[in-house]
Amino acid sequence: MNLIQLDEVDSTNSYAMRHFHDLPDCTLVTALSQTAGRGRQGRKWLSPPNRNIYASWVLRNIENPGFLAGLGVLHFLRANAPGHDFFLKWPNDIYCGRAKIAGILCEGAEYSSGRVVGAVAGMGININMSPGELASIDQAAVSLRSLCGHEFNLIFLLPSLDFSLHTVYIRYSKRPDLLFADWKKENRLIGREIVLAGADGLQRRGVFSGVAPDGGLILSEPDGRLNVFRCGDVHLGAECF
Ligand code: BTN
User: Fold this and answer.
1) Are the C-beta atoms of residues 200 and 232 closer than 8 Å to each other?
2) Sign of the Cα pseudo-torsion (58, 62, 65, 68, in order)
3) Atom 11 of ligand 1: nearest residue by CA position
């Protein structure tokens, strides 16, 4: 995998989008610090220098880069913090217990007949943030350090991330159907009662009854209707974890 390591950048996603046409397929752009880290739904992504992994993966001819990035980061975390219970929270957040440890931001970079044929999958993974820094995030968050009780060497972790992403990529190239099945299996909240906060600002209550072939969340609403949502935030009552 082609690896680009930057010291500081506005956002690794913005960098990968700007240089998309010059970067080979599967390039991973990383930075030690982001001055304008971006999250889903227009939110900011807190990006203190030398603390976390900020990485963006350039992918061509892949219909749903979020599956690959979400599973890759999940395997990376399991490999580096064995014994902790990491899982995917739709669409591709990675949680441990009630707290988020990593998030994925996918952006379409190239389209053909209205379909995405090239994308950037950005990954923010909390590695060495202290409990104090984590407390400044507006939702429950953990880092590898807060879970494991020691700091990690960011530079040594990159080959491990690269390996996990590459493994997922190879599996997808051979059997995309099996990768989708893996992704579905790791979505811990399927079957649960949820509140979906949609991109339209509305909150909808219902049962997360499954995922559509494109990864959309199928919500079974109280009136019995099934609706598919492609973005939004899933919330649960505390008793659901
Ligand atoms: C989320 O909202 O959960 C997604 C967060 C994605 C953050 C990562 S950090 C690396 C890449 N560059 C960005 O600006 N955002 C993504």
Assistant:
1) no
2) negative
3) 122
H-assigned helices in 105-206:
131-135, 144-148, 154-174, 176-186
Ligand 1 mean position, distance from CA 220 (Å) = 29
SS3 track for 25-74 = CCCEEEEEEECCCECHHHCECCCCCCCCEEEEEEEECCCCHHHHHHHHHH
Question: Can you tell me the distance from the alpha carbon of 110 to that of 123, in angstroms, rounded to the nearest whole number?
Answer: 19
- Full-model pTM: 0.95
Decide: 93 in ligand 1 pocket, CB within 6 A: yes
Report residues of the chain scoring pLDDT below 70: 237-241
At 178, list the tokens.
Answer: 């099996």
Q: How far is the CA of 61 from the centre of ligand 1 (A)?
A: 21
- Ligand 1 centre to CA of 171 (Å) is 24
* Digit-coded pLDDT (tens) for 120-160: 999 999 999 999 999 999 999 999 999 999 999 999 999 99
How far apart CA 67 and CA 65 sit, in angstroms, is: 5
CB atoms within 10 A of CB 24: 9
* 21: Cβ contacts below 8 Å, ≥ 6 apart: none
3-state DSSP assignment of residue 218:
strand
d(CA 195, CA 202): 10
In ligand 1, the atom with minimum distance to the C-alpha of 36 is: 14
**CA 28 centroid distance within chain:** 14
